[in-house]
Specification:
The protein has 439 residues and is of the alpha+beta class. It contains 16 helices and ten strands. The structure holds (R)-mevalonate (MEV).
Length: 439
């Protein structure tokens, strides 16, 4: 029987480990051993990680890999990806190499607008509210001068504040819908600080706005927070080549391959069940780079899927067409990313990932990340419409199973060779391994 605990956060790390091991796990000895094994022996590095969050008891590792040979707007990149799923980096690398000889990836940032909102309740005459907003708007902006000064130096700042009447959806509900440019920062802290100051000024000034009656003066601020839905912080990545150049080694002709790719994309466009999996493949690439570069993958995920459903039904984020003998494959995706602030200078591996990417601006990073998504999708759909996904997956999976079984290097070589000609299901691998052992 477990019991609640008071003051868990005040315990030392070792005490926390003892407590969780004793109260929540079957074998406290093993729990402690596993947790401690993943702590870093470099005390300074461990302290850094301990302090990223609260109640740290260990570290949770993900592999960091490299997908090389990405030609993006004529510049070559090796892309760092943090991901646990086998085959993703192999697929990205394969797509990069394929397009390297066909002109590479072309990308364009279509917008970088960030959004934040002050949500409030106003009980009164909406025309008076509009008049009040027009009067107070310059003050809302000038009162944030101390916060915006640095951002303006870097080319960012507040771009607009709009009063929006949302009473159609909820009685007396209005908002200040605010837009920002945040240069190379993701901008969450900047935006939230501005919003909280807008809210304060907006509420205080209402109390002395002459035309308001008593109830109107009492504006109720509900909350001030950035929106992770940023449909105008958008990037496009594209590949194209003549259809006859789409020679693939999976035993189908270029035109057949191009047609199948287009057909697969058409299905993802009209069928949400397929679209979700299709977009998940895109996110395999996107999330891995977002994570490696210390960006907020939850924000990116939330935004991307809202964007995929923006026209009322969930659909594919990538598109493909054949026109005048040219195969074109592209992705448009909203990505709010930063290359300064946050983890970027705190986490040594994030700093390194950005270094490997040649210290990109936020706009450059948007383009690199979009390319990783497009490449991943191209590789996944290519497999799906030709050999099927399992062939590639099982090759990587085979290695994972062999590692789990504790196979020696020699045994791995023998079994990898054996499974070149046999289907590598989990049970077949176990059977073959046991047979090899007993010989
Ligand atoms: C697996 O992680 C991703 C795929 O399912 C994507 C897709 O189906 O397009 C292979």
């Amino acid at each position: 029987m477990t019991v609640p605990i008071e003051g868990f956060s005040k315990l030392t790390k070792n005490e926390k480990i003892d407590w969780i091991a004793t109260n929540y796990t079957i074998d406290p000895k093993i729990t402690k051993k596993v947790l401690k094994r993943y702590l870093n022996s470099d005390e300074e590095l461990q302290k850094l990680h301990d302090e990223f969050i609260e109640n740290t008891i260990s570290n949770y590792y993900l592999p960091l890999g490299i997908a090389p040979n990405f030609l993006i707007n004529e510049k070559l990149y090796a892309i760092p990806m943090a991901i646990e799923e086998s085959s993703v980096i192999a697929a990205a690398s394969k797509a990069a190499k394929f397009w390297l000889n066909r002109g590479g990836f072309k990308t364009r940032v279509l917008g970088t607008e960030k959004i934040g909102q002050v949500h409030f309740i106003f009980k009164g005459n909406s025309k008076k509210l509009t008049a009040y907003f027009e009067q107070v708007k310059p003050l809302l902006i000038s009162n944030t001068a101390s916060i915006t000064k640095n951002m303006e130096k870097r080319g960012g700042g507040i771009t607009n504040i709009e009063l929006r009447d949302k009473t159609g959806g909820l009685e007396n509900y209005y908002q200040l819908h605010c837009t920002f440019e945040t240069a190379d920062a993701m901008g969450a802290n900047f935006i939230n600080s501005c919003l909280e100051l807008f809210a304060k000024t907006f509420r205080e000034e209402a109390q002395v706005f002459e035309p308001f009656n008593k109830e109107e003066r009492d504006i109720e601020i509900v909350m001030s927070i950035l929106s992770n839905y940023v449909p105008n912080c958008l990037v496009r990545a594209e590949v194209q080549c003549p259809v006859q150049d789409l020679k693939v080694d999976e035993g189908i002709s270029p035109i057949e391959f191009a047609d199948k790719m287009v057909r697969a994309l058409q299905i993802a466009k009209v069928e949400p069940h397929r679209a979700v999996t299709h977009n998940k493949g895109i996110m395999n690439g996107i999330d891995a780079v977002v994570l490696a570069t210390g960006n907020d993958f939850r924000a990116v995920e939330a935004c991307v899927h809202a964007y995929a459903a923006k026209d009322g039904s969930y659909t594919s984020l990538t598109h493909a067409q054949i026109e005048d003998g040219i195969f074109k494959f592209w992705l448009e995706v909203p990505l709010a990313l930063g290359t300064v602030g946050g983890l970027t200078s705190l986490h040594p591996l994030v700093e390194l990932a950005l270094d490997i990417l040649q210290k990109p601006s936020a706009k450059e990073l948007m383009q690199i990340v979009a390319v990783a998504g497009l490449a991943q999708n191209f590789a996944a759909v290519r497999s799906l419409v030709t050999t099927g996904i399992q062939e590639g997956h099982m090759k990587m999976h085979l290695l994972n199973i062999l590692n789990q079984l504790g196979a020696t290097e020699d045994e791995k070589v023998t079994l990898i060779d054996y499974f070149r000609k046999h289907t590598a299901t989990h049970s077949e691998v176990v059977k073959a391994y046991e047979k090899l052992k007993s010989n």
